[in-house]
Amino acid sequence: MKRLWRRVNRYDAARVSAIAVATPVVAALAAYVLAASSASPKVGALTAAGALVAVAGSGLLYAWRLGAGGLSD
Fold first, then answer.
1. For the chain, what is the HEC assignment?
2. CB of 58 closer than 8 Å to CB of 41
3. Least C-beta-crowded within 10 Å: which of 1, 16, 47, 70?
4. What number of CA atoms fall less than 13 Å from residue 68's CA on the CB side?
5. Is the sign of the CA dihedral 49, 51, 52, 56 positive or negative?
6. What pLDDT does 17 receive?
7. What angle (nearest 5°) sits at the alpha carbon of residue 46, between those of residues 56 and 40?
8. Could you give the CA distance from residue 52 to residue 25 in angstroms, rounded to a whole number?
9. Per-domain residue ranges of the chain
10. d(CA 43, CA 56)
């Protein structure tokens, strides 16, 4: 158990949180792409998907920026 907690304490909380949030976002986008390939999406739906990618991508980039106060700083 001691080895497990030593390993867990080495992880950077901001990056682990970003991955935890990004995983369902990627799954939702994959489902959207699958649905869009079988139907013709409207402009509003494409705009919403683009906005989701932009917001989630900026959050991930923010978590991985230099000087974020993580373990690598």
1. CHHHHHHHHHCCHHHHHHHHHHHHHHHHHHHHHHHHHHCCCCHHHHHHHHHHHHHHHHHHHHHCCCCCCCCCC
2. no
3. 1
4. 16
5. positive
6. 79
7. 140
8. 8
9. 2-63
10. 20
pTM > 0.85: yes or no: no
Structure-token match 């705009």, residue found: 47
Average pLDDT for runs of 10 along the chain of length 73: 82 78 87 86 88 85 68 55
Per-residue model confidence (pLDDT) at position 67: 66
Token pair belonging to 32: 């959207």
